[in-house]
Amino acid sequence: MSDALDKAEKALSEAETNTAAVQLATMAMELAKLATQQQAQAPTQACQHEPPKQRRSSGEWIGIACAVCVGSIGLAFASLALAILGGVAAMVAIVLRDMWRDMQRKGR
User: What is the DSSP letter of 49?
Assistant: First the structure.
């Protein structure tokens, strides 16, 4: 009798295991069907309008302001350097002209 009882318990546990496995397989199949349906529906619902433009954050505006300030300071220094270079070139031209005149007077 205990042998039959053992066989019955073993069959019951296998049936429970098989039932759980079948339930898991059924759930997996249902999930796969849902995923396939969602993938099939996704292309038909394509977006027809452009996404809204994202606004700049305050950090980006601060970065832009700093870049403009640095650029303007660089431009100011470059302008100052050109002004000095022009003044030096004018002085050299005046000195060379005077030297040329002196050489011309002494040569006569």
Answer: S
Percent composition of the chain: helix, strand, coil (DSSP 3-state, to 5): 85, 0, 15
Alpha-carbon distance of 108 to 99, in angstroms, equals 15
* Structure token digits, residue 74: 């660089």
pLDDT tens, N- to C-terminus, the chain (108 residues)? 667 667 666 676 676 666 777 677 677 777 777 777 776 665 555 667 777 778 888 899 999 999 999 999 999 999 999 999 999 999 999 999 999 999 998 876
Token duo for residue 17: 């295991």
Q: Which long-range contacts (CB under 8 A, 24 or more apart) does 1-7 make?
A: none
Q: What is the DSSP letter of 19?
A: H
